[in-house]
Design goal:
The chain has about 350 residues and is of the alpha/beta class. Helix content is about 35%, strand content about 15%.
């Protein structure tokens, strides 16, 4: 289960009647949402996927739209690779996936069940990336003892499935995690929290938690984005990451610009500064489909405008499903490969 599944703040009945509080004040900020929109917005409105697609930065591309590079259906995407007696081999070039969670953290399936599905799909390489321990929030991550058990199990599976698939034992290290990552095959560096006045507030845990983060940032989306991207800019230095995880995770609940304008000068300035810092590290950025498979977004992280900006400056990319279930391995990689071809992206692997 994901953190959102584990920690549900309100019942469905409560969500049906809950209205969004006055979380933003009308100001001169470029990131402010209109008062009229806030007065009519309800939580069910936010939970429902709209037909609108996320805007892209006009500064990054004058003509690029998400629909130009990825064709999505209006319905929520399917989240399974149906099992059958005959192996299903997707029509894609990429046969690897390095952002995969198991039951050792907030994933659904055992590592071995995931390996079996990977073999069935014809994958050649599979990397596990359990969530690193964070003392201030233990509900979604691996405990220290759990981390050792996780490593033992992955190494056991490496031996058992040798010759069928190459397995890697990785870790998704949060910016605020102090775990020693020296014994892992690779590290995904990610920012899941913003520290506001000593409190670690999650960015992606739930809609309610995101709204609280925004309130704690003075109801100012530009302030929130600035805090978040200042951490992202330093994530490789802080975590020793080999892969930069879901660069614009802060937009998870912002489909269609529901909370802030992703084309606003303040927001663009924040992410560009972080991207410029990370480009100097040479580490690849994820094209991450996790929020698509879970129904929150229609396009991957990062947004099309950010992808274009990074690509224009020589940045590299790696496809990641951020899978929390064996059913979403390599999720929508075919669409992402098409995106990469259309934009001339440099896809890489570990």
């Amino acid at each position: 289960m994901t953190r959102q599944d584990i920690r549900t703040a309100t019942s469905k009945e409560a969500l049906d009647t809950l209205t969004v509080p006055d979380i933003m004040t009308q100001s001169d900020s470029h990131c402010s949402m209109s008062k009229e929109a806030l007065d009519t917005l309800t939580v069910p409105d936010i939970m429902t996927q709209s037909d609108a697609r996320p805007a892209t930065s006009n500064e990054a591309s004058d003509t690029l739209t998400v629909s130009d590079i990825m064709t999505q259906s209006d319905a929520r995407p399917a989240t399974s690779n149906e099992a059958s007696d005959t192996p299903t081999v997707p029509d894609i070039m990429t046969r690897s996936d390095f952002h995969v969670h198991t039951c050792y953290c907030d994933g659904k399936d055992s590592p071995e069940d995931i390996v079996k599905e990977a073999v069935r799909l014809g994958m050649t390489r599979l990397g596990f990336s359990g969530h690193s321990y964070t003392a201030f929030d233990t509900i979604y991550c691996m405990s220290p003892d759990g981390t050792r058990s996780y490593m033992d199990e992955i190494h056991r599976l490496k031996d058992k499935y040798s010759g069928q698939i190459e397995l890697l034992c990785g870790i998704e290290r949060d910016y605020y995690s102090d775990i020693d990552t020296g014994d892992f095959d690779y590290v995904i560096g990610s920012v899941h929290y913003v520290n506001v006045d000593g409190e670690f507030l999650p960015v992606d845990e739930s809609l309610e938690a995101f709204m609280r983060l925004l309130r704690c940032c003075h109801d100012d989306p530009c302030d929130m984005a600035g805090r978040y991207y200042s951490l992202v800019a330093d994530v490789v230095n802080k975590t020793g990451a080999d892969i930069i995880g879901h660069f614009d995770l802060i937009t998870k609940f912002n489909e269609g610009g529901r909370f802030f304008d992703e084309d606003s000068p303040g927001y663009i300035e924040a992410w560009k500064s972080a991207a410029d810092s990370l480009l100097q590290t040479g580490r690849p950025f994820e094209i991450n489909t996790g929020a698509i498979s879970r129904g929150w977004r229609k396009t991957p992280y990062p947004s099309a405008g950010i992808i274009s900006y990074i690509a224009s400056r020589g940045g590299k990319f790696i496809l990641s499903s951020d899978s929390h279930s064996k059913d979403t391995l390599m999720f929508q990689f075919a669409e992402c490969e098409e995106l990469a071809r259309n934009l001339g992206l440099r896809l890489t692997e570990l």
